[in-house]
Design brief:
Shape of chain A: globular
Structural class of chain A: alpha/beta
Strand content of chain B: 5-15%
Number of domains of chain B: 2
Largest sheet of chain A: 6 strands, mixed
Number of helices of chain A: 7
Bound molecules: adenosine-5'-diphosphate, magnesium ion
Largest sheet of chain B: 4 strands, antiparallel
Number of helices of chain B: 9
Largest interface: A-B, 28 and 19 residues
Strand order of the largest sheet of chain B: 2-3-1-4
Distance between the termini of chain A: 27 Å
Oligomer: heterodimer
Number of strands of chain B: 4
Helix content of chain A: 25-40%
Structural class of chain B: alpha+beta
Helix content of chain B: 55-70%
Order of helices and strands of chain B: HHEHEHEHEHHHH
Strand order of the largest sheet of chain A: 6-7-8-3-9-10
Chain lengths: 229, 304
C-alpha cells in the first residue's frame, strides 16, 4: 500500500536530513506505529505519503503509484484515498459536527442524499450520534478527535494517516481513540500512526517502526515502544 | 451539493469582508464609469464627424473690388480667373480629392445671408453688391483639405481659402482632450481596482487559510478551492460594472437627453441607447479585471 525506497528528505540546504535513506513497505490493511522523539521525522514521513512534500531522493509509492509520476493536478485524487488525523484535530470552528464531516464529501462532489445518509452513519460509528449539531468548542478533546476521525474515514479511504492523534488527550480518552482506530483498521483500512505515546504502543502490540534523527533504526512486528536497539 | 457548497462559501466570504467587498464594488464602479465616459465621448466625436464632415466644404473666396490682400491688388476677380480656378480644381491632379465644385455668386451669397440673418435689423443695410463671390469645393476626404488649399492659394483672383472644418476643430480638440482625461483617469482607477481586488482576494484567502488547508487535506481540487474566491471577485466587479452602466445611463438620460439635447439642437448627442451598447463592454472589462486579479492573487495558492 505504501512503499518507501531509500527516501531522503532535506528541507534546507546543508541541514541534516529530516529523513535519511528510509526504505519501508506497509501492506494493505496493516496497522503501523511510527515512533521516535520529537524531530525524528515522523511528520515528514506522513507528509511525503500525502505528497505535501516531495522527497529529495528516493521514491515513494502509494497504492502502487510512484508519487513522482503523479502530476500536481492529480494530487487531490491521491488525497481522496487517504484520510488524515492530527494532534490539533483541525476542525472548522464555525461549522457544526455534521458540517465538519460533510465537507470531506462535499469537496469531492458527492450527491446530497449520499451525504445525508453517510455522515450520520459515520458519526454513529465513532460514537457521536446525537451530537451532529454541536460546534467543535462544545465538545471535549476526545470528541473533537472523533469528529476528525469521522471526517478522515467518511469517504472510506484505503489509508488513514494519524499524526500523534492522542498527543493532546488524557490516557483514558486516548484508549477510546485507539479502539476506534483499531476498529477502522479492521475494516481493511491501512493505518500509519505517528506517536511518542509509549503506553499506547505497548498496549496495542502492532508493528512498530522507529525513527531516530531521520534514520529507521527498528522495524518490529507486534513490537513495543522502547525495545532494546 | 457542490454548487450549493460553493455558493455558501461565497456568501460567507462576502459577509466576512463586507467593507472590502463594498470598496471593490465602488472602485470598479468609478473606474468603469470613466472607461464608459471615454467611450461615450469618442462616440460623440464620431457622431459629429459623421454628421458634419459630409457637409463641410472648402470655400475659396475670390478677390472683391477692394481688398488689402496683396494677391488681390489687381481688383475684383475676373471671369477668366474664375474659369482658370475651376479648371485647376477639376483637373486630373486633384480629381482624387475634389468631389464637386460650384460657384456661389454674390446673389446666392446674399440669399444665404438673408436666410440666416434676414430678420435682424442690422442685416438690412447690406446689399448683394457687398457680398463676396466664392468657389465651394466639397472634398472626397475632408481630411485632405491641405492638398486643395495649397494648390489654389496664391493663384490670381484668390483672396483666401477657408476650411469650414477648421471652425469645428477647436470643439473636437476639447472633446479629444476630455477623452484623454477620462481615459487617463480610467487607467489609473483600473490599476487601483486591480490592486484592491487582488488585496481583497488575498485577505479573503488568508482569513480562510484554515478552511482551505482542510479542504486540500480532504482532496478538494485547486479549482474547487479557488472558485469561491474568484467568483467573489467577479461578483463584486460585476456589480461595479452594472453600477457604472447605470450611472452613465442616468447621466446621459438627465444631463444630455433632457437638458443638452433640448437646448442645443444642432448637435446629434449620444443617447441612452449608446449607453446600453457599451454596457456589455463595461461588464466584460469588469470581469477581465476580476480574472486578472484572481490569477495574480491566487497563483501562490495553486501549490498543493
Ligand atoms: N517545513 C519544514 N522546514 C524545515 N525544516 C523542517 C520542516 N518540517 C520539519 N522540519 C525539520 O525536519 C525534522 C523532522 O521534523 P518532523 O518530521 O516534524 O519530526 P516529528 O514529526 O517526528 O517531530 C526536524 O528537525 C524539523 O525541524
Ligand atoms: Mg510531528
Amino acid at each position: 500500500m505504501i512503499r518507501f525506497k531509500k527516501v531522503s528528505k532535506v528541507y534546507a540546504r546543508g541541514a541534516r536530513p529530516a529523513l535519511d535513506q528510509v526504505s519501508l513497505e506497509v501492506e494493505r490493511g496493516e496497522f503501523v506505529f511510527l515512533v521516535g522523539a520529537s524531530g525524528s521525522g515522523k511528520s515528514t514521513f506522513l507528509r511525503l505519503v500525502l505528497r505535501e512534500e516531495r522527497p529529495t531522493s528516493g521514491s515513494v509509492f502509494v497504492a502502487g503509484r510512484d508519487l513522482a509520476q503523479v502530476s500536481t493536478w492529480k494530487v487531490p485524487h491521491l488525497r481522496r484515498q487517504i484520510g488524515c488525523v492530527f494532534q490539533d484535530f483541525r476542525l472548522l470552528p464555525t461549522k457544526t459536527v455534521f458540517e465538519n464531516v460533510a465537507i470531506a464529501m462535499q469537496v469531492i462532489g458527492k450527491p446530497r442524499h449520499q451525504v445525508m445518509t453517510t455522515v450520520p452513519e459515520t458519526l454513529e460509528m465513532v460514537g457521536l450520534a446525537g451530537k451532529e449539531k454541536r460546534l467543535p468548542h462544545e465538545l471535549s478533546g476526545g470528541e473533537q478527535q472523533r469528529v476528525a476521525i469521522a471526517r478522515a474515514f467518511v469517504n472510506r479511504p484505503a489509508i488513514v494517516l494519524a499524526d500523534e492523534p492522542t498527543g493532546n488527550l488524557d490516557p483514558t480518552t486516548s484508549v477510546g481513540i485507539m479502539r476506534l482506530l483499531d476498529r477502522i483498521n479492521r475494516t481493511g483500512t491501512t493505518i500509519v500512526m505517528a506517536t511518542h505515546d509509549d503506553e499506547i504502543v505497548d498496549q496495542m502490540r502492532k508493528r512498530v517502526v522507529e525513527l531516530v534523527d531521520g534514520q529507521m533504526v527498528r522495524d518490529q512486528d507486534r513490537g513495543v515502544y522502547g525495545a532494546a536497539r | 451539493m457542490r454548487v450549493r457548497f460553493v455558493l455558501s462559501q461565497i456568501g460567507n466570504g462576502l459577509r466576512r469582508n463586507l467593507a472590502m467587498a463594498v470598496s471593490v464594488v465602488l472602485v470598479t464602479f468609478i473606474s468603469l464609469a470613466f472607461v464608459g465616459a471615454a467611450i461615450l465621448l469618442q462616440t460623440q466625436i464620431s457622431n459629429m464627424k459623421d454628421d458634419w464632415y459630409d457637409k463641410v466644404e472648402v470655400s475659396i473666396f475670390l478677390c472683391p473690388a477692394s481688398s488689402s490682400v496683396p494677391n488681390c491688388a489687381g481688383g475684383e476677380a475676373t471671369e477668366e480667373q474664375v474659369e482658370d480656378l475651376q479648371a485647376v480644381l477639376t483637373s486630373d491632379a486633384l480629381s482624387d480629392y475634389v468631389d464637386e465644385v460650384y460657384v456661389e455668386s454674390k446673389e446666392q451669397a446674399y440669399e444665404a445671408y438673408l436666410e440666416q440673418f434676414g430678420d435682424q435689423d442690422w442685416a438690412q443695410s447690406i446689399t448683394a453688391e457687398q457680398m463676396q463671390m466664392s468657389l465651394r469645393v466639397s472634398l472626397v476626404d475632408p481630411e485632405m483639405y491641405q492638398v486643395v488649399a495649397d494648390e489654389v492659394t496664391g493663384r490670381p483672383g484668390v483672396e483666401y481659402v477657408v476650411d469650414q472644418r477648421s471652425i469645428l476643430e477647436p470643439l473636437f480638440l476639447i472633446l479629444n482632450r476630455a477623452t484623454l482625461l477620462a481615459a487617463g483617469l480610467a487607467a489609473l482607477m483600473t490599476v487601483t481596482a486591480i490592486m484592491l481586488i487582488t488585496t481583497t482576494i488575498r485577505l479573503s484567502a488568508m482569513s480562510r487559510r484554515r478552511e482551505t488547508s482542510i479542504m486540500r487535506l480532504v482532496g478538494a481540487s485547486n479549482l474547487f478551492i479557488q472558485l469561491p474566491f474568484m467568483l467573489e471577485g467577479a461578483l463584486a466587479a460585476l456589480l461595479g460594472a452594472l453600477l457604472a452602466a447605470g450611472g452613465l445611463w442616468l447621466g446621459v438620460r438627465y444631463i444630455i437627453e433632457d437638458w443638452l439635447a433640448s437646448s442645443v439642437r444642432w448637435v446629434n448627442f449620444v443617447s441612452t441607447s449608446d449607453v446600453l451598447l457599451i454596457a456589455p463592454i463595461l461588464i466584460g472589462i469588469g470581469i477581465v479585471l476580476a480574472a486578472i486579479s484572481s490569477l495574480v492573487s491566487l497563483s501562490r495558492y495553486t501549490k498543493v
